[in-house]
Amino acid sequence: MSVQVIKPRIRGFICTNAHPVGCEKNVQEQVDYIKSLGAQNSDNLNVLVVGGSTGYGLASRIALTWLYGGKSIGVYYERPADGKRTATAGFYNSYALRQLAAKDGFFASDVNGDAFSDDLKRETIDRIKRELGRVDVLVYSLASPRRFHPRTGAEHQSVLKPIGEPYSGKTIDLNREVIADVHIEPATDAEVEDTVAVMGGEDLEMWVEALMEENLLAKECTVVTYTYIGHELTWPIYRDGTIGKAKEDLEGRINALDVRLSSSMGGHAYLSVNKAVITQASSAIPVVPLYVSMLNDIMDAQGTNEDPIRQMGRLFSEHLGPSLTPALDADRRLRLDDRELRSEIVGEVTRRWDEVNTENFLDLSDYAGFKRGFRNLFGFEVAGVDYDAPVDIELV
Ligand code: NAD
Q1: CA-based nearest residue to 125, from 242, 58, 248, 207
Q2: Per-residue pLDDT tens over the stretch 50-75
Q3: How far apart are alpha carbons 115 and 207 in whole angstroms?
C-alpha cells in the first residue's frame, strides 16, 4: 500500500500521473449513463475489447457490459503503480470497471501487455478458452504510437504528418496557451509505411485470424473498429495525412474481413466513423485540440454534443447488438459522426476558424472545457473528488 496526495503533473498534451479516485468516478459516471439507457435482454454476450482501458475502447466495453450483461475481456497496455509513481489512468479505469462489474454481477477480466505481440495474443486466447468460451463481439480500439512487428521484429513509429506537401495552419500551443502557427513537413515514404504498420489493419487481421484458427469466434460474430473523417480543416493532417493512409488500410481490411466472416460463419466486420472527442490519442494530434474546443462549444450550445460514452451508447444500443441492424452509408460505414458533420456545425466551425487568434480564442471555443476534459482523462478536476485527501495508489 502506498498512500499519497496526488496533484496533476501536466505539460502540454502529456500528463504523467493519474488519480485513482477520479478515474473511478469517471468510470462510474459512464456506467450510470449506460444504465440510464435501460438494459436490453441478451443471453450470454461474450466481448473482447482490444484497447479497452481508455477513450472509445473503454466506453465500448462499458456499453456492452451494462447494456447486454456482456462478459468481457479487456486488452490494454497500462502501467501499474510503482513505488511513489501512480499507475496510468487506463490502469485505474480498468480496476474500477472490474469492481463495478463485479458489484453488478458481470464478469470482467483483463490482459495487460502489448497487443501487437504473439505472446499477448496467445495469453488472451487461453483466457478466452477458460473464461468466455467464444467471442461474439470483438472491438478493436487500439491507438498506439509504436508497434514491434511480431514477424519481422522491426519497430514502427507512427507519425502525424501531411503527405506530399507541408502543412501550415493554426493550433493551440498548450504550454503557452496561445494560438500559434504550426508548420509540419510532409512525411517520407518510410514514415507513411510505418504509420500504416502501426495504425492500419494488419494487427486486427492477425487478431481475427488467431481467433478463427482456434475456433473462438462465435457464429454471427461482430467485429468493429473505429475511424475518423471530420471537418476538412483537419484533412491535411488527418484524412489526407499519414494516419488517414493507415485508416484507409484498416477500412480495406475490414471490408475483406467482412466477406470472410460472412461467408464462413454469418459474421460481420464494421468500421464506425466516430466523432472527434478528447482522448489521450486525439490530444496529441496538431490542430485537433483547437478544433475540438470549437466543435464542442458549438455542439454543446445546440444540445447535440456527445462524449465517448454517449457515442458508444448510441452505437451499441441502435446499431450493433443482438437483434439490431446497423444503418450503413454507401461505403458500408457506420456514421456516428453524423451530428459533427451537419452543415450548420461545419459552417460555424469554418467561420470561427477563419477569425480565431490569441485574443479571441477563449470566446470562440470552449478551451476551458477542453482543458478540463483533458484533466478528467487522468482523474483530475472530477467533481466530488477531494484532491487534498491521501489515497492508495497501489490498486491491483
Ligand atoms: P485512447 O488513447 O483513449 O485509447 C487507446 C487504447 O489503446 C488504450 O486502451 C491503450 O491501453 C491501448 N493501447 C495502446 N497501445 C497498446 C498496445 N501496444 N497493446 C495493447 N493496448 C494498447 O484512444 P482513442 O482516441 O479512444 O482511439 C481509439 C480508436 O478510436 C482509434 O482507432 C482512433 O483512431 C479512433 N477514433 C478516435 C477519435 C477521437 O477523437 N479520439 C475519433 C474517431 C475515431
Answers
A1: 207
A2: 999 999 999 999 999 999 999 999 99
A3: 9
Distance CA 111, CA 56 (A): 18
Binding site membership of 27 for ligand 1 (Cβ less than 6 Å):
no
CA distance 232 to 205: 29
C-alpha to C-alpha distance for 274 and 320, rounded to whole angstroms: 14
> Is this model's pTM higher than 0.85 or not?
yes
**Residues in Cβ contact with 225 at an 8 Å cutoff, skipping those fewer than 6 apart:** 139, 140, 141, 201, 204, 250, 254, 269, 270, 271, 272
d(CA 88, CA 379): 10
Task: Give the Å distance between the CA of 144 and the centre of ligand 1.
Answer: 7
Is the Cβ atom of 227 under 6 angstroms away from ligand 1? yes
The DSSP bridge partners found for residue 50 are 75, 140
238 is known as an active-site residue = yes
Q: Name the DSSP letter for residue 70.
A: -
387 DSSP 8-state letter: T
What is the three-class DSSP state of 254? helix
Query: Cβ(53) to ligand 1 under 6 A?
Result: yes
Instruction: For residue 67, give the nearest of 45, 50, 51 by alpha carbon.
Output: 45
State the average pLDDT for the chain.
Answer: 96
* Residues shown for the chain: 396
